[in-house]
Every structure is written in C-alpha cells, then in structure tokens.
Write a structure and sequence with these properties.
single chain, alpha+beta, Carbonic Anhydrase II, twelve-stranded mixed beta sheet, 4 helices
Length: 282
C-alpha cells in the first residue's frame, strides 16, 4: 500500500511540474512593443551593465589619441542577402575575404553584416549622439574578431569580439548615388521576414563617409538584445548625406506584415558612460 501511495504521489507531482506555466520571454521591440527599450532589462539583465551602448559622444569628455590608418578591404561578392527582421533592414555577408584592421584595433575583423537605425523624421533616428545632436539615421557595419575567435557567435562572449563602424546619416537636397543599390534592396523587403538575394553587388565601403581619420572610439555593447558587452565602437564624425526621398524609403518598411505599423524610431536611447574612457582620433 505504501509503495502504491508513493507511486501515485510521484505521478501527481510529475503532472503538476509538467503543467506548470513557464516564464516566456517578451518579444522585444521599440516604443509601442510589449518590451520597449526601458524594459529590456527584464529579459536581458545586462541592459543595466557598465558598458552599454549607444552613448552621447561629447567632445569635452574624450581624450585625443593618435591611431594608425584603417585598412578596409571589402569584397562586393561577400554580400549575400537583404532582409527585414522586424527591427531593421540587414545586409548579410558571407564568411569571405571582407576584412577590417588598423585604427584602434589589435586584430583583423571580418564583416558579418550591416544594418541601419532611423527616425520618423530627420530630426531623430541615430543611436549615438554627437555633442547632444541626433541625426536622421545611423549605419552600423558589424565585424567579428576572426583572428582570435572561431565564429561570430563565439566573438559575442568576449570584450574585443566585435568591432562596429558607425556612421551618422543626415538629410541633403540631392540623392546619394552610393546608396542607390541599398535603397533598391530596402524596397524589396517591405515586411517582416522578407528576404531577398543581393543581386546588385557593391562595395560596402562606399557607404562610409569620405573622412575615415576623424572618429570616436570606446568600449561598448550591442544596441539590441542580447546587448552583449562585446563591441569596440568606432563612430565617424563626418555624416553621410542622403536625400529626404532616400530617407523616406527606410520609413516605408514595416515592423510586421501587411497592415502593421511602419518601421520608424528603431533606435535605443543613449546609455550612461559610467566611467568609460572615450577617445577621439587626432
């Protein structure tokens, strides 16, 4: 009898455990989502870490430092696809020969992808600020440390795992011809989970500003979940200029499927510097 009672009790407890509801992670997003940026810490506690990004890059708080020139060698054939992931538009690169070195970096980094953040108007949209100023959008070219680590995923676990080149984007009266193929790619993926092969090849280096010698450098994090503190940030001071018509194409993307809100203001607010050293190239 005691054996039967124990067996029935074990079965009852097993059923209770099996039926117990589990904590579900919220779908993170921006202002109107279930988990907006101020609440990301609920699912990603590192959001309250000490080297989070983006930040306000204040000239008065930086130390001038001389760095070697960057060596940027991108292969246009490494670009594979463009996609709308419901948070941004991303151009992916294969594990090819596109490499970044020099500047403040001590290793070679391979290009993984590049994406954008933008606002609902041209007065806001960039993730970083420059002396308190926000720009219409911001380009991020994401690279991983291929000299020290085995993969992009492995690099996320190390403080020097990634290097992200950031470029501010500001409005101009004329179209930027260097962005024509990017704009065409954006138009091809209006809804979440849309994905297209990159058929119009181009060198991603043409998306950067002309002056690559003047920039800010600091240790930070990914600006989207999982918010890993693994990024060596380089943010160029000279903005890239796009026409209002080109910027409008970003704002025609959607956070979801047909009928969903247009994708705007997909930027994280600035975080505390928290005692970090910020450098300005000279």
């Amino acid at each position: 009898m005691k054996t039967l009672v124990r067996r029935l009790l074990r079965q009852f407890l097993a059923q209770r455990i099996h039926c117990r509801p589990t904590a579900m992670a919220h779908a993170w997003g921006y202002a109107d989502s279930a988990l907006p940026p101020p609440e990301w810490y609920k699912d990603y506690p590192i959001a309250k870490g000490h080297r989070q990004s983006p930040i306000d890059l204040k000239t008065c708080d930086t130390k001038e430092k001389s760095f070697p020139d960057f060596c940027i060698k991108y292969d246009q054939n490494n670009l594979t696809n463009v996609s709308n992931n419901g948070h941004s538009v991303t151009f992916a690169a294969s594990a090819g020969t596109s490499e970044l070195s020099g500047g403040p970096l001590c290793s070679k980094y391979k290009l993984e992808q590049f994406h954008f953040h933008w606002g609902s108007n041209s007065c806001q949209g960039s993730e970083h600020l420059y002396d308190g100023r926000s720009f219409a959008a911001e380009l991020h070219l994401v690279h991983w440390n291929s000299e020290k680590y085995k993969s992009f995923a492995d690099s996320l676990e190390h403080p020097d795992g990634l290097c992200v080149l950031g470029a501010f984007i500001a409005p101009h009266e004329c179209d930027n011809a260097n962005y024509e193929k990017v704009i065409n790619g954006i138009k091809s993926v209006p809804y979440k989970d849309d994905k297209k092969d990159v058929t119009e090849k181009f060198d991603p280096a043409i998306l950067l500003p002309k002056d690559l010698k003047k920039y800010f450098h600091y240790p930070g994090s990914l600006t989207t979940p999982p918010l890993k503190e693994c990024v060596q940030w380089v943010v160029f001071k000279e903005p890239v200029m796009l026409s209002e018509a080109q910027l409008a194409e970003f704002r025609k993307l959607h956070f979801g499927g047909k009928g969903s809100p247009c994708m705007c203001n997909n930027f994280r607010p600035v975080q505390q510097v928290d005692g970090r050293e910020l450098f300005s190239s000279c």
